Amino acid sequence: MILALALLVTLEVSAQTDKYTQVMQKNIALLDSAKSIDELQSLVGTFDRIGDAEKTKWLPYYYAALAQTWVGWNPATKDKDANSAKINAFLAKAEAIEKNAELYAVENMSATQQMLVDPQTRWMTNGKDANTALQKGLQADANNPRLYYLQGMSLLGTPEQFGGGKDKAKPVFEKSLALYKSAQPQPLYPTWGQKQAEDGLAQCK
Amino acid sequence: MNLNKPVTLLAALIFLTGCLTAQTLVSGTVKDTKGHPVRGASITIKDSYDGAVSDSIGAFHFSTSEKGPFTITVTNIGYSSFEQSITLGSGPIVLKPVIKEQLSELKAVTITAGSFTAGDAKRGAVLSSLDVATTAGSNADITAALKTLPGAQQIGEQEGLFVRGGAGYEAKQYIDGALVNNPYYSSVPDISSRGRFSPFLFKGTVFSTGGYSALYGQALSSVVLLESIDLPEKTEIDATLSPIIVGVGTQQLAKDKRSSWGVNYNYVNVGLYFDAVKQTPDYFKMPQFHNADFNFRAKTKNGGMIKYYTTFAYNDLGLRRQDIDSLNTKDAFSLTNHNWYNNLSWREYLNNGWKMNLVASYSTNLDNVGQQVQNAFNQPKTFNDTVFWMNAKTFNVDNRQDLSQAKAVFDKKLGGISSIRFGTEYWYSYNTQKYRSLPYSDTLFKFKDNYNAVFAESDIFLTNELAAKLGLRYEHSTVIKKSDLAPRVSLAYKTGPDAQVSLAYGIFYQKPENSQLFYTTNVGFTKATHYIVNYQKMSKDRIFRIEAYYKKYEDLIKTIPINYYYSTFSNSGSGYAKGIELFWRDKKTIKDFDYWISYSYLDTKRNYLNYTEQLMPSFAATHTASLVMKKFFTKLKSGVNLTYSYATGRPFYNFMLNGTKYNLAEQGKTKDYNSLNFSAEYVPSIGNPKAKTFVVLFASVSNVLGYNAVYGYNFSYSGGYRQPITPPANRFYFIGCFLSWGVDRSQDAINNNL
After folding, report:
1. Which one of B64, B99, B134 terminates a domain?
2. In a domain, B754, yes or no
3. Is the pLDDT of residue A74 over 80?
4. What does the buried/exposed string (b/e) look like for B322-349 if buried means 16 or more CB atoms within 10 Å of the residue's CB?
5. pTM for the full predicted model
6. Contact B311, B338 (CB under 8 A)
7. Nearest C-alpha neighbor of B586 from the set B541, B529, B521, B525
8. DSSP character for B516?
9. For position B571, which CATH number holds?
10. Do B53 and A124 touch (CB under 8 A)?
């Protein structure tokens, strides 16, 4: 009986820790398949709640920010400044726990979304912020495949005359893909971007 | 028993697990205080993972395995949050949270009647500094670019903004809240001059054509509010090369990016240019300008900013023109100017939502102006008393204006986004005019004025859709010993997501001009009352606005002649202006193509100065229109810009003095005004982050088609002969090369020293 109770207690405790992993795994899978703004917005809420409940884990806030970023890429999201303010609020919560390259990658996307509202007048402000985030990210982790993917996209979107273009982007995508292949992410850590980097490379041909 | 025990245990386990996973269903609908469903609100059981986000009809539902007392919270950006205590575990729970929309600066309506905001990227700029530089015909002069907006007249014979039936001196410029006494280079009669300040000094420009805030006084028609930039982007060195200008400068940004300093110098000499492009006047002293400036800027601990800017300018010129009364005589005019301008400002965030803006400014301006009537051999010529008016054309005068001022504005946020602000300003001005020739030989005219104003204003947001701005300004001037009280009111109502209607009303006072106060101080403030209604629809890349106004002028200055040389003045003038203006800007329809159209209809009459009755003033055209186009070719790294301006003819008058009374001897209307301007820039190093030198090549031609502009007429003493007032040359050409080292400056591609 004592043994059984001990077993039960152990079960309970492991259930408690596993609950985080399970819930995260489930929602990360949902995020990978989410399409509509409503689905994404609902996941933003879920990750934010997990983050608030856990208090010491940066990953839930990271995923909240990431889901909010996917909302921002949707053309139906009109007010990019307001959306980026939400992204940045989640990033701030995450960065209060830990600063790392993955968070800089999202910060880069957030600033890029704002820059794209009016590239001609915003590239000196938001565009500069995006670049700063990318550089800080590469300083924190020079082998992060997502940062190279984002750098590649930025080069691809910049006209040749302005120092971008396919020729410039291609080697960066190639580096990104090489890093994706050798990457060994920890459980629950972000894995997204390989498919997008492949698409980006395809556009360079 | 032995058999049963594990079974019991198993049963107990199953039961326990069953209890653990028993789910409570929580559902409901989130609404705002008006009963509208709220989408995207986040519903959370505090300290748990469980919750949901409301859908497009405000509905949500989720299940939770938590048990016992919990707090449920409902939050959404732009709304106040909602909390409720619930007990989980005893059946489904249905919630009806109501959350209140918060007033938000981003969503709220802004008061736009009468005002064009430029340069503020967030608020939707009308003209940025780059826009000013790339408006063909402006040659990077702020005033010239503002003339392409509705409300301003196409005036070429004198500087200044002539807004809605107002004279040029009725429009004032402010830098960081402080009045600029001499915003333009000193001018020659019948030739307009440029503004002293580069557009790249400023991050924001507000061009208000009426109904402006109680923070600004002493301008009857218009204010141009210039807000200087904070810290530069990066350390750099610049150089300017052109046949008429050479300049060097640097901006140094501290490593911690909390302070910076900069110094610039340029020299302008149009000698080479005037040799190549013939000018109507005969310049015996080629216009040359020395300009130097210095700035220091620092961030304070609490995010405030201290800025100091000073600029010194020296210029001189001399030109000869045909005398109007006598064919074989000439008038030789010369001008030397010294100008020193200083502006020190401190913006600080205080506790409890208070904000403070302090600014102090000192400027001194000295013009030595002389004219001599000369014979065919450029020798001085004198006349006997039977033609005394010819002698009066020879003069030598020193004009000096000193202005010291201090202004303090305190701003406090009230609940939500409503705010109040109040403050005071004090100006001490000392003006002298010293004649060194007849008829006032060695007479020193002078006056001092202590001007003081107190003002208060509140921004009240009744809802996100309806806002009011109420202001009151009290002013006192010691030189005229008069006080006034000027109320200002504006309202704005949002009629759609991007559309709004604004109304403005205000009373505006202005002291008489220096040239009048030298002769009499027994005058009062001149007065204008504005009524404005405006509709605006603005999306990111398109702006449409239509504005109608009525302006009533009272107590305008009238000239009372005593004899040919002397006049005194009274406040017996009056007038009105009314009109409709349209503005359309579109950056969206064609890629990399930006254009705007403005149109102004103006109906105005006034009786002032030597006018014999209420007449349409000589600076007013009934119809004015501008079309500005800009196209950037990314592949060629080049842009081309075209501006076409049109105005119907303006009236001209010849008022002749008969004893102590003016007669209207002749009147007429000039022909229509047309001008087509072109400019182009080539930016080879754009977007090349590795370029060590950033280069911009710029070229412009004003009045490409060579229309002969006639701005008005000068009349001979007898009234028998009149001469058109025309620009000194039909076209103006400029080429220049701007270099910078240290940072990619494509943002301000056209150099600021132009």
Report:
1. B99
2. no
3. yes
4. ebbbbeebbbbbbbbbbbbbbbbbbbbe
5. 0.78
6. no
7. B541
8. H
9. 2.40.170.20
10. no
Q: Are residues B147 and B122 in the same domain?
A: yes
Which chain B residue's Cα is nearest to A9?
B13
* Residue found under tokens 């050409």: B733
Q: Read off the pLDDT of residues A126-173 as tens digits, 9 standing for 90 and up.
A: 888 898 899 999 999 999 999 999 999 998 888 777 778 889 899 999
Contacts of A127 by beta carbon, 8 Å cutoff, 6+ apart: A111, A112, A115, A119
Tens of pLDDT, residue by residue over B720-730, are 899 999 999 99
Q: Is residue B110 part of a domain?
A: no
Residues B540, B499 share a domain: yes
Q: Do B122 and A81 touch (CB under 8 A)?
A: yes
pLDDT tens-place string over residues B197-232: 998 888 878 888 998 889 999 999 999 988 898 888
**Is the same domain home to B142 and B62?**
no
Residues B495 and B414 in one domain: yes
Q: At what angle do helices A59-73 and A80-95 cross, to 10 degrees?
A: 170
Q: Could you tell me the residue range of the domain that residue B41 belongs to?
A: 4-99
CA B278 to chain centre: 34
Tokens of B139: 């040659």
Per-residue DSSP letters for B675-693?
Answer: EEEEEEEE-TTTT-TT-SE
Tell me: ipTM over 0.85: no
From the CA of B704, how many Å to the nearest CA of chain A? 28
HSE value, Cβ hemisphere, 13 Å, CA-based, for B534: 33
> What CA–CA distance (Å, rounded) separates B170 from B500?
28
Q: How far apart are CA B34 and CA A185, in angstroms?
A: 49
Total number of residues shown for chain B: 754
d(CA B184, CA B367): 13
Residue B470 confidence (pLDDT): 92
The SS3 assignment for B550 reads: strand
Q: How many CB atoms lie within 10 A of CB B485?
A: 10
Are B458 and B483 members of one domain?
yes
**Phi then psi dihedrals of residue B159, to 5 deg:** -85, 170
Beta bridge partners of B733: B701
Q: Which pLDDT tens digit goes with each residue over B379-413?
A: 999 888 888 888 889 999 999 999 999 999 999 98
Question: Do B214 and B356 reside in the same domain of the chain?
Answer: yes
Q: Which chain A positions have a beta carbon within 8 Å of B690's beta carbon?
A: 163
Tokens standing for residue B720:
């028998």
The residue from B70, B99, B128 where one domain ends is: B99
DSSP string, B14-82: HHHHHHHH--EEEEEE-EETTS-B-TT-EEEETTSS-EEE--TTSEEEEEE---EEEEEEEE-TTB--E
Per-residue pLDDT, B119:
36
Are B86 and B134 found together in one domain? no
DSSP state letters, B426-483: EEEEEEEEEE-STTSTT-EEEEEEEEEEEEEEEEEESSSSEEEEEEEEEEEETTTTEE
Q: How many CA atoms lie within 13 A of A189 on its CB side?
A: 12
- How far is the alpha carbon of A50 from chain B, nearest alpha carbon, in Å? 5
Indicate which of B17, B21, B44, B49 best probes the interface with A, i.e. most A CBs within 10 Å of its own CB: B49
Query: Kind of pairing, strands B222-228 and B68-75?
Result: unpaired
Question: Would you call A124 and B52 a contact, using CB atoms and an 8 Å cutoff?
Answer: no
Per the CB < 8 A criterion, the answer to whether B253 and B751 are in contact is: no
| Beta carbons of B51 and A121 less than 8 Å apart | no
Q: How many residues does chain A have?
A: 205
Q: Structurally, how many domains does chain B consist of?
A: 2
Give yes or no for a contact between B190 and B709, defined as CB atoms under 8 angstroms apart.
no
**Run of H or E including B129:** helix B129-133
**Are residues B42 and A53, on separate chains, in Cβ contact within 8 Å?**
no
Q: Are residues B181 and B70 in the same domain?
A: no
How far A176 CA sits from the closest chain B CA (Å)? 22
CA distance A70 to chain B (A): 15
